[in-house]
Amino acid sequence: PDVGWGKALLAGLVLGVSYVAPLLVVLEFPLALGAALGAYLVALWALVLVAARAVQYWPLPWGPLAVGAVAVVVEWIDISVVPVWGTAQVFTRVWSAAPPAAQLVSLSGVLGLVFVVVALQALAAAWLREVAGRPKVLRAVGLLLLAVIALDAALWLLREPQSSVRVAAVGWTSQDRRKLGKRSWERTLRGLLCPAAKRAAADGAKLLVAPEVAFRVSSADEKRKLLAALAHTAKDLRLALVSGYFDSPARQNRIAFF
Predict the structure, then answer these.
(1) Cα 55 to Cα 239: distance, rounded to the nearest angstrom
(2) Helices 62-76 and 110-129, interaxial angle, to 10°?
């Protein structure tokens, strides 16, 4: 059955709230910032659903593929026009254990992945909705997957790397921090980062990446001591080390590389 504009908007709002509410709880933003971010993200989800409603009933398979294109446009708005997330949307590999399967991302960034994932979901919905059109849907799914596989294979064969590096990504939860007692950069470094870094180095890692806001410093002296400690850790373990930290006096979210 045809979904009206009102239902499409309502579905977008419900989906947006369902996505945003847990995210805001985890991020623990100040009230005004959290409200603004929540309203922005809910509006984006509503835009996706309303725009998808405009194209999803096009003849098969173009409607579902157009839904994927709509999602790409909205995602581009999110990361380019109003770049709330900075570089947090950028990533190198989807599956580090199978880099040949992620070459599309190396070419298109997150937008190519968004198109493939959303278009496949829209095709699945069309398969459930339109029994008579199922052969067209299956052909479209097969051609889309075949195109991705062929592109991945071609890019991998043309750009196969001549060497590799083992990378360790470390992180911790709020529960891990609470176990340390009073929150400080020294305790986080000694109790969380250093043990993980030692295990990574023993496993052959050459590059270690810590979280975006792994540490917080409240003065210039604390910042100097933190950077010196990170530099010593990298030198001692013979690792390239990347770590984020928040400079509270300057209100800056920074990254340090050693």
Answers:
(1) 51
(2) 150
Decide: helix, strand or coil at residue 243.
strand
Dihedral sign from CA coordinates of 35, 36, 39, 40: negative
In the three-class reduction of DSSP (H, G, I as helix; E, B as strand; rest coil), residue 131 is classed as: helix
Q: Which two tokens stand for residue 234?
A: 């990298």
Q: Which residues, at least 6 apart from 77, have a Cβ–Cβ distance to it below 8 Å?
A: 44
CB 104 within 8 A of CB 115: no
Could you tell me whether strands 207-209 and 167-169 are parallel, antiparallel, or unpaired per DSSP bridges?
A: parallel
pLDDT in tens, 16-32: 999 899 988 887 778 88
Residues near 114 by Cβ (< 8 Å), separated by ≥ 6?
A: 68, 71, 72, 75
Predicted TM-score of the model (pTM): 0.69
CB 188 within 8 A of CB 214: yes
Alpha helix ranges (H) inside the chain: 5-27, 31-55, 62-76, 103-108, 110-129, 134-158, 174-179, 185-188, 194-202, 220-237
Per-residue pLDDT tens for 33-64? 889 989 999 999 999 999 999 998 899 999 99
| CB distance 43 to 35 below 8 Å | no
**Overall average pLDDT of the 98-123 stretch:** 87
Of 55, 57, 71, the residue nearest 133 (C-alpha): 57
